[in-house]
């Protein structure tokens, strides 16, 4: 199932990719000289550091000039703008053509299920959709499935769970009493 990305964001994503290709990979200063330094970027802080001073012939460091295009900033790779959602009422503020919902990590299972069900009705894309069995059941209940069916399924699941195995407790090891100072070895 392919989703159509909004046309403006498609162009913005192309611009962002082009800008990313022009950007050099920034490496830590002197990392080519010392094996104990990793290549991953560290901000140079020394007074005489050539990369910090932007001396000609030295590798470049990150700066404002390497920022991506303004229209592509904060776009999800899917082409939608992310909107944090904390409850069902938050979905009413989302434009399904240009925005997508990201459910907050603080939202519990019950409220998450309600948000997912409502998002399906409003045809809103959810970026962090994790559908577990419990969430799926609660979503189906929220959509209007008979609660008796869900209760029967829960009973079946409980019956399928295996009882814990009983483990035999080992008797503690018996140790020989230590000889007293006055006793002789035989």
Could you provide a short overview of the structure?
By secondary structure, the protein is mainly α. Helix content is 30%, strand content 5%.
Question: Can you describe what's shown?
Answer:
The chain is mostly helical and 186 residues long. The chain has a domain of 75 residues. The protein contains 4 helices and 2 strands, in the order αββααα. The chain has a two-stranded parallel ribbon. Helix 2 crosses helix 3. It is flat and about 90 Å long.
Structural class: mainly alpha
Residue fraction in strands: 5-15%
Total count of helical runs of at least 4 residues:
4
| CA-atom Rg in angstroms | 31 Å
The proportion of residues forming helix, as a percent range, comes to: 25-40%
- List how many beta strands DSSP finds: 2
- The H-and-E topology, N to C, reads as HEEHHH
Q: Can you summarize the main beta sheet?
A: 2 strands, parallel
Gap between N and C termini, in Å? 86 Å
Strand order of the largest sheet: 1-2
- Shape estimate: flat
Mean pLDDT: 83
Low-confidence stretches: none
Name the descriptors.
186 residues; mainly alpha; two-stranded parallel ribbon; 4 helices; 2 strands; flat
């Amino acid at each position: 199932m392919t989703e159509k990305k909004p046309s403006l964001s498609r162009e913005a994503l192309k611009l962002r990719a082009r800008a990313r290709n022009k950007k050099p990979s920034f490496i830590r200063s002197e990392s080519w000289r010392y094996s104990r330094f990793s290549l991953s970027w560290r901000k140079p802080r020394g007074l005489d550091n050539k990369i910090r001073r932007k001396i000609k012939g030295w590798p470049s460091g990150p700066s404002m000039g390497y920022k991506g295009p303004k229209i592509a900033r904060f776009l999800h790779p899917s082409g939608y703008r992310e909107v944090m959602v904390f409850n069902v009422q938050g979905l009413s503020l989302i434009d399904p053509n240009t925005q997508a919902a990201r459910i907050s990590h603080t939202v519990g299972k019950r409220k998450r299920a309600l948000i997912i069900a409502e998002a399906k009705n409003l045809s809103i894309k959810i970026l962090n959709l994790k559908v577990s069995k419990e969430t799926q059941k609660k979503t189906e209940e929220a959509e209007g499935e008979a609660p008796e069916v869900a209760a029967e399924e829960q009973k079946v699941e409980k019956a399928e769970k295996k009882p814990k195995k009983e483990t035999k407790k080992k008797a503690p090891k018996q140790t020989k009493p230590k000889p007293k100072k006055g006793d002789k070895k035989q």
